Please model this.
Amino acid sequence: MSVVESIAGNERGHLLKILGVTFGVAVAVGDMIGSGILRAPNAIAASVPSIALIMGLWVLGALNAALNGNVLAELGTAIPKSGGVYNYAHRAFGDVGGLIIGWANWLAFVAGTGAAAISFANFLPLIWPWAGQHTIGVAVAMLLGLFGANILGLREGRALQEGTSLIKATMLAVFCVAAVLFAPQTQPLPPAVAAAPVLGWGAMIAAYQLVRGAYAGWDTPFYFGEELTNAGRDLPRAMYIGMALTAALYIGVNGALLYALGLHGVASSPLPFTIVLGQFGPVAKVLFALTAMITVASCANANIMGGPRIIFSLARDGLLPHWFTIVNKGGTPTIALLLTAVFSVGLAVSGEFERVFALIGTLNGVGAIAMAVAVFVLRRTEPGLARPYRAFLYPVLPALSLLIEVVFMVLYSWTDTLGILFAIGLAVVCIPFAIIARRARKTA
Model:
């Protein structure tokens, strides 16, 4: 009997080992492709004065994710537990480090869910104008629908994720082809009109933060480690395939937009997609709205599936109350899902999610640094640990990944002081909780 079955099985059920590569790819693509790719091209084009630099940033984002994936694949296959990076941080750094990474990680999932819900509500009025007066109600209704589907069980959540990920990936690919082959290409603009502001370091860093935010979610398959039938084989495959598909779509979408509209055209509208599709008539705009809603709903569903498993894992290790380990017969951590639902809906209702969502890049950066350090720590402290996947070119590439993340964290601290202070505050707050949990386990 597995650890999960022995702990949660006596309550109501247990996590189900029924997932494979297809789901892993779907949940990675589903979490990465969200409102970021719909909104980031405009903001980046408005601040970066070169098409080559813009395309280079999207390629760099994919390479950055692949470097970090090389590290995480070793950790995830060596410690194939649901709950993702928390498990690796807890194994390497103990209760305090695990709790900090776990809470930061869960907060990022909750913020991503709330942001996707509001984005969904913002796109619906393009089809149904009445919804524009009821943004919060629409966002909450969407969340309740997705949480309701997932509380039924893992199979229902898996079907929803695979279906929505396939639809949105297909629609983005169709857009790329249509924009290049059929949309009239914009005539070259005069230099004075087409010129973007002079590029500065701050603008470049801010633009790359948007790119990294768009790629965030490539690690989502690792939050289902013990639910995959063959984690040692399937996790690296799902991660790299998901990255490759998403990178191809991101580069293709940005290339198509820049080809059809030019730099100034992309920078001129918050949603440059609508300008391109507007040339195909009103039906195309409706298709865009539907694609956008499916895109953000799929992203929300990936977060809804992954977030509760962090809470489940924290509770399993004694860092949260034991009843968060309750799993229903469908394979869903029920109480953990309800907690995630409460916070996600509260964030959507408050309308303050933008402030928290802005911190996700910083929190993810902290997690990436922790994982790069963890792979070195566990190589030293647990040399005999089975590692179905060993980080390629160790220690050179993991060291390079760590160096890059530290450099970016320094740069982020320059442009996002609030995010750094929040991360420090989160660490300080977690310390007494970790100490209390440790004492409680010793007493037990």
Summary: The chain is about 75% helix and 0% strand. The chain has one domain: 18-438. The two ends are 23 Å apart (CA to CA). The domain at 18-438 is CATH 1.20.1740.10 (Amino acid/polyamine transporter I).
